[in-house]
Structures are given as C-alpha cells and as structure tokens.
Amino acid sequence: MCLGIPGQIIEIVDDANSIAKVEVSGVRRNVNVALVRPEGIGPGDWVLIHVGFAMSKIDEAEAQETLGVLQTMGSVYTEELQMLHESHIE
After folding, report:
1. Of 5, 12, 67, 84, whose CA is between 20 and 30 Å from 19?
2. CA distance 19 to 27
3. pLDDT in tens, 10-32
4. Which domains does the chain have, with CATH numbers?
C-alpha cells in the first residue's frame, strides 16, 4: 500500500530542479516539489508526499491530524516510513 505522508520542508536544495529536503517523522529525504511550487512553498511549509513527490501543500493542523491517523495504522505506516528511509532522490 502506498500512502500520502505529511512532511515539513526543511530547505530547497536544488532550486532549478525543484528538489527540497523534507522531514517526515524524523526521516529527512529529498523530494520533488515541482507540483506545489506554484502555490508558493518554502522552509517550514507542510506537503503531502507520495512516491517521492510533494502532491499538495497542506497546513500544519492537517499534517498533524493525518500523521496521527497514519500512526494508528501500525505496520502499514512503519513500512511506508522504512521505504522512505531507504529511498534516495538526488
């Protein structure tokens, strides 16, 4: 199962290629933010991530609520975090 997981943008690491470092539950990974750049994003903003892409910009309240629900899913959520931890987008 693939989930959309909230992550907070830490920094834009490659402006030309729309790559940002995002933190998801303590895991930091580069993700492509091209789809949400028109909405105006930057460090501190929250995005919903799916397969290495930020799919939408969300507010912090929605991010926290979604994380809470995902954590109740147990192994499905932890497996998704493990896949994120093992991924590498440069």
Report:
1. 67
2. 16
3. 999 999 999 999 998 888 989 99
4. 5-86 (2.30.30.140)
